[in-house]
Amino acid sequence: MRSRRLVPSSIPISRAALLVAHVLLCSLPGIVSSKSVILSSIKIFTTHEWMPTKPTIYFHCQGANETILPDVKEKDFLYIFSGEESWQPLTELPEKKCRRCGLYEHNTLKSDDVFDEWELCPSNFVHGKYVRLKRNEFNATFVCPQCTAFGGTNLWLQG
Ligand SMILES: *[C@@H]1O[C@H](CO)[C@@H](O)[C@H](O)[C@H]1NC(C)=O
Ligand SMILES: *[C@@H]1O[C@H](CO)[C@@H](O)[C@H](O)[C@H]1NC(C)=O
To answer: For domain 35-143, which architecture applies?
Structure first.
């Protein structure tokens, strides 16, 4: 009898503990959910379109839709974003997994130009920040508060 009473009472306790842990984890944004990456700033050093039209620059990750950066039209101009723009976040990164992404420019006559294409990984981010500089092409700063190069989940909480 004693052991039978222990079993039913221990189940609600562990369920309650799980629930509490779940609520705690979910109230800290991003520890459980996937990792949102925003574009915090970008400067392009060139455009590839030879026609006198404004370029259409977009970010694209494999398996996802293109994200057009509607404001980025001029070269050598530093565009700064808050992360609240309608097209943000740029992408989401799965847990400990990279996505192949790139920055491109639409082309009217031939296939789109590539500024750069690379593996965007959670471990790229140091204290939630990642600067990607490609010589003569662009300099972009990405922010992902939930990403960290150290694999921990609380570094970003401290700063
Ligand atoms: C891409 O965009 C289309 C139309 O807006 C949407 O239905 C689809 O779910 C999107 N795909 C991804 C992978 O986000
Ligand atoms: C690239 O951008 C970052 C962030 O705006 C800046 O700190 C850095 O000096 C820039 N580097 C170059 C070469 O423009």
So the answer is: Sandwich (2.60)
